[in-house]
Amino acid sequence: MTSILSIQDIHKTFEAGTINENHVLRGMNLEVEEGDFISIIGGNGAGKSTLMNTLAGTLLVDSGDILLEGKSIKTVSAAKRAVDISRVFQDPKMGTASRLTIEENMAVAYRRGQKRGLSWGVKDSERKVFKEALKELGLGLENRMKVDTQFLSGGQRQALTLLMASLVKPKVLLLDEHTAALDPKTSDMVMDLTKKIVEKDKLTALMITHNMENAIEYGNRLVMLHQGRIVVDVKGEEKANLTVQNLLDLFHKNSGQALVDDEMML
Ligand SMILES: Nc1ncnc2c1ncn2[C@@H]1O[C@H](COP(=O)(O)OP(=O)(O)O)[C@@H](O)[C@H]1O
Ligand SMILES: [Mg+2]
């Protein structure tokens, strides 16, 4: 099987040649198969967000290559990559335009990759599609389509952002601690929605989480980063049977280090 996304020996150094030189990605390799739902964990500063930035194109790699469906995208602009790669951030404010309504935000997402912007307003045919999609969230947002998103809660905004990220099926969905700013109950709600959307649309998704239990519970594959490299990569049956203790043991075995307690939330 060929990979949908192939990350090949990528390196990234910040502030090269200065006293603050920081070699963050140190030869990262990952073959992502179509339909993989990969949870990514690693301590603070392990390079998780940097990895996503290099995939989304907001940062360029220093060396190595990134292939999407077999074609190198490493020099493609972030705007062009956004047609195929959608992204949800930690901050609920990042995903939607506050002063646009729910339906206007959805229209922007729906027209991703097309030349036409919002100039012709939201069409009735589009509104119907959006309403059906919103109903599936189960949050009642289908009755508030003309409300600006600034009036929604953080959880509602993240749910809407997820829906927008998948309205036009992306080749890859990137989730960077997208529930970390939410209270535990809302976080669980958004995680469940994530699972539902990924499964329903058969998405290929990479999800960074700080929460080991979430990483174990969700996805078919789990990757752990340490000092800019992948030190754990478990999938299938092994992933399904994984426990926190297994994971700590695997980390210890492969990195030669023990995890500091507060490095990750359990
Ligand atoms: N744009 C940047 N410029 C300089 N240093 C950066 C930049 N982005 C990240 N870093 C540094 O790279 C390291 C890894 O950061 P990051 O990938 O955000 O870690 P995390 O695994 O917590 O998401 C950190 O030491 C961080 O300070
Ligand atoms: Mg991060």
Automatic annotation (TrEMBL):
It comes from the Bacteria. The keyword Nucleotide-binding applies. GO terms for cellular component: plasma membrane. SUPFAM superfamilies: P-loop containing nucleoside triphosphate hydrolases. Keywords: ATP-binding, Cell membrane, Membrane, Nucleotide-binding, Transport. It is a peripheral membrane protein. GO terms for molecular function: ATP binding; ATP hydrolysis activity. It holds the Pfam family ABC_tran. It is found in: Cell membrane. Residues 5-252 form the ABC transporter domain. InterPro entries: AAA+_ATPase (IPR003593), ABC_transporter-like_ATP-bd (IPR003439), ABC_transporter-like_CS (IPR017871), ABC_transporter_ATP-bind (IPR050166), P-loop_NTPase (IPR027417). Transmembrane segments: none annotated. This is ABC transporter ATP-binding protein. It comes from Streptococcus danieliae.
